[in-house]
Amino acid sequence: MLSLTQASDIVDAALSKARALGLRPLTITVLDPGGHPVVVKREDGSGILRPQIAHAKAWGCLGTGAGGAAGARHATRDPAFFAALAAISEGRIASSRGGVLIRDAAGSLLGSIGVSGDRPENDEACAVAGVESVDLVADAG
Fold it and tell me: pLDDT tens per residue, the chain (141 residues)?
């Protein structure tokens, strides 16, 4: 199980990485395995849709069982499938880098993180840094 303390530490480390890289303001959410928010933080100046985008990135990872990078590659190869997936999920899924599954050392799923606000590769780097900061495994796909 992912504790509130761990989820908070993950988000704080991801935001710290973003500030070290000089990225645009981010919004970050950590979800439990059922897709429920554990922590959501939105930096000052982060766009008004960023919480929903971060949630959709994290939720999409849980829904597909793969990190956002894998989803983004698959969406490029098969856009019709991902259009259908968006419809099936009632628009709650975003197949983009910046969504990362959170696993323990044994590979058990603990939740996911979604980061939104900068370029997808930067969002992903912050998500990975946050997860790894608490000695968990970031499965970016």
Answer: 999 999 999 999 999 999 999 999 999 999 999 999 999 999 999 999 999 999 999 999 999 999 988 888 888 888 898 888 888 988 888 888 999 999 999 999 999 999 999 999 999 999 999 999 999 999 998
Q: What is the Rg, in whole angstroms, of the alpha carbon atoms belonging to the chain?
A: 14
Closest CA to 119 of 81, 84, 78, 72: 72
Torsion of CA 67, 52, 75, 25, to 10 degrees: -70
Q: Which amino acid, residue 8? A: S
Give the whole-angstrom CA distance, residue 130 versus residue 98: 12
Tokens of 8: 């908070």
Q: 3-state SS string over the chain?
A: CCCHHHHHHHHHHHHHHHHHHCCCCCEEEEECCCCCEEEEEECCCCCCCHHHHHHHHHHHHHHHCCCHHHHHHHHHHCHHHHHHHHHHCCCCCCCCCCEEEEECCCCCEEEEEEEECCCHHHHHHHHHHHHHCCCCEEECC
